[in-house]
Structure formats: structure tokens, C-alpha cells
Amino acid sequence: MPQPKAFAILGATASGKTALALAIAQHFPCEIISLDSALVYRDMNIGTAKPSAAERAAVPHHLIDIISPVEAYSAADFVRDCTRLVGEIHARQRLPLIVGGTMMYYHALTQGLNALPEASPAIRAQLQATKAAHGLGFLYNELQRLDPETAARLKPNDSQRIERALEIYQLTGKPMSQHLAAHATAAAPLNLHTLALIPSDRSLLHAQINQRFNQMIEHGFLDEVRQLRQRYPALHPDMPSMRCVGYRQAW
After folding, report:
1. Who's near 143: CB < 8 A, 6+ residues apart?
2. What is the pLDDT of residues 58-68, one digit of tens each?
3. Domain co-membership, 19 together with 139
């Protein structure tokens, strides 16, 4: 049985991928599947530059506003949901456009997933308590001792990945590098055609990113962060939602 066909448009922030997808949808019967780890969160609208209500009304969008900011959404969740949506979109006689820039999701979709254990809230809480007491440098030094290969490829200030690597070691007794060396699961059963938008002038892209950030501030981004903190008392800056670009800085 032939694999269902899908098209992916990849690009950095402000690279024009959303505008291109919407333009394509004017000429072909398409539905857009978001490939963006920030857009899955409800109530995070300004800082994530979500498609407008008019854009979402003009073209069906998927995997946007599906969980709260205190919940987690993994690459495995994305692969499962994206594969299901591609089938459903084909059943409606339409074309799936997978659009975004979260490369972790794209790699999981096209290259498969390593068999890493699910997150443990209890262990993560212990690690965060240790970080609060002794600093992130203490955790990084511990990772260098337990898993020097993983520590070597991470920046010393990459709190999320350092904690995840230590969490995996505590859960399994094996370093993360050993898990990643094992064979990954199979890629998603899709006939995927990919277009990557690569800027010819990175200084222009940076200027566009700065312009977008200034517009977000003007549109009330800081108020949005304050409202998130009030609406979700359990929210804290180490949660994946608040690690999205801009939110941690505004916290």
C-alpha cells in the first residue's frame, strides 16, 4: 500500500514559511499541520506569533491550542498526532502541509525516535530542587561525571537538556549517550516532500526577528505573560512552555 503523501515547509522564525503555506493553500486544497512546539499551548498567543483567527478560518490548522501551558507534549506525541492527521486529511481529499521550525519534531517524524524513558515528575522535581540549592553548574558537573559524552555536546547553561540527561540516568542507570546510540524506531510511514527556507541574508532575517519582537511587545506580550502566571498558579519558568523563546526572558 503506498504511503500517504505530505509536504513540509521548514524555516526559522520570521522566514516566511507561514505566508508561503497560506499562499499555497489559495491554489490547492490544503490543511496545515503545525510543526511548532510553542503553538501547542493555549493562552500563549502573542509570544508564539500564532496564525491569526482570519488565517485559521481561511485554512484549517492543526496541533494549535491543544494543551495548557502546565502540560507537556513530546516528539513522540507529535509523530503520533501528525501521522493520524495526515491520514484524516487525505480522507477528506486534501493535501497535508506540515509547517514550522521545531527540528526535534521533524527529525522524529523522518528518522524515528530513540527509546528514551518517559519523564518522571518526581525526579525532575528533585533535580530542580538541587539546582535551586546548588546552581545549574552543580548539575552540569554531575552530568560530566556520569555522561561525559552528552555533557560535551550540551552548553553549560542548557538547563532543560542537562536535567533531562540526568533524569534518564537516574531512571535507567545508563547514560543518555548510550540510549541514543541504540537503534531508533522506524520513521513515520509518510511519503514526505520537504522544502526548507534558507535566508540568503541572515542580517535581514535578524532584522525581521527584531521587528517581530518589537511588535509583540507593542501588542501586549508582557501582559500576556503576567496573565499566564495568574491563570496557571502551577506554572514555573522550568516548564517546557516557559522555555519557549521570549517567555523565560519575560518571566
Report:
1. 150, 151, 154, 162, 165, 166
2. 999 999 999 99
3. no
